[in-house]
Amino acid sequence: MLITSPLYLAYRSRGRTSLPPLALPLAPPLPSHRSRGRTSLAPPLSSHSPVRNKLHVVQYKSRFDDDTDDLTSSNPQNSPEPLIRPLIELSAIECVKAQIDTAQEWDKPFQNHCVVVFYNFSRDAGSMERSQYFGYSKDLYHLDHFLGAFRTTFQSFLTANSFEYRQVESETPDEAVVLALATPRSSPTSSSDSNNSSSSDRKQQKTLKFTLCRGEYGSRTGCWLVKSLILL
């Protein structure tokens, strides 16, 4: 039989008479993946793998997803924007009165709304510098740093009194001192009782001293902000 295969003729020209061995293509090796120190032959998940696609569907569900009130009460940083904010149109007395008025509905429209308002009017809110807002050195970088001290110092006092306001002359136009004179809230009484109670109230009257200055940065530039708040 005459063999005319080019491969056979090439081998015959070299003095060989047998056919060359059949050359089979080698299969590519399976990728080796190390898992906890052992070698695994399992190939990686393809981007089109249904198993991998299912992994992307799984999402973490917080217990707060359906209850925003719990989220706000658990983390003050998640509080919404307050209804009252610093405005350049407010005078120093109006700035003080706007803050104190929120104390009568402390938790409306959301929990600790009054505290959030006072914090937004604080000059040092969000600052990493130590503040003298409460009359002593304290960090007011986060709202929760402000929340505890403010409620402990002022909540019962603000909710139990009504106030009259008086502005004290300051040395510079960019600073102001406003006094909020407190009068305890009382139920209606007879005229004689009211006269006696009013005289005793004046003797026990306490004052909140607001020291204010003009804001110098951002959206609060030019607005009256509270540098310190002291109970006298």
Folded structure, characterized:
There is one protein chain. 31% of the residues lie in helices and 19% in strands. The chain has 232 residues and is of the alpha+beta class. It has a single domain, classed as Nuclear Transport Factor 2, Chain: A.
- How do the strands of the widest beta sheet line up side by side? 5-6-7-8
Helix content: 25-40%
Low-confidence stretches: 49-73, 187-192
Which architecture name does CATH use?
A: Roll
What class would the helix/strand composition place it in?
alpha+beta
Put simply, the count of helices is 7
Q: Which strand-content bin applies to the residues?
A: 15-25%
Query: What would you call the shape?
Result: elongated
CATH class: Alpha Beta
Instruction: Indicate the mean pLDDT.
Output: 76
Counting DSSP E segments of at least 2 residues, the number of strands comes to 8
Q: Please report the distance between the alpha carbons of the first and last residues.
A: 123 Å
Q: According to CATH, what is the topology?
A: Nuclear Transport Factor 2, Chain: A
For the record, the count of structural domains works out to 1
Task: Set down the secondary structure blueprint.
Layout: H1 6-13, E1 33-35, E2 38-40, H2 50-57, H3 68-74, H4 92-101, H5 113-120, E3 130-131, E4 138-139, H6 143-160, E5 161-168, E6 175-184, H7 191-204, E7 207-214, E8 224-231
Antiparallel strand pairs: 1-2, 3-4, 5-6, 6-7, 7-8
Give a nutshell description of this structure.
With 232 residues, the chain is of the alpha+beta class. It has helices spanning 6-13, 50-57, 68-74, 92-101, 113-120, 143-160, 191-204; strands at residues 33-35, 38-40, 130-131, 138-139, 161-168, 175-184, 207-214, 224-231.
